[in-house]
Amino acid sequence: MCEVTLPKTSKQNLKNPMLTDELNTPYYVTYYERALSVRNELARFLHLTTFGPTSAELDALEETYASIKDGTETTDNTTDTSSTNTTTAAASLSHSEAMSKLQIDW
To answer: Please, are residues 9 and 25 in contact by the beta-carbon 8 Å criterion?
Structure first.
């Protein structure tokens, strides 16, 4: 909960103390939405889950996020005899869906 003490919007009338004079002081309620960049959100995720991010980790996660969001993921299929990379195309995801998938897969 947020509380704010606002200045008075009226004052006592000097000629008649029983009356109050209204002041024309408008109040506006404004809402601000905090938006993090993808890199800052990834850095925050790494701070919470590791000992802190490195530039290389952030670069790799940004690339992975972009591929997840665009719907083109590259998966590594490694076996004892061979290694292959498979690119699958899927529908693009919203920011929150892509970020959730990245955090789960990571």
So the answer is: yes
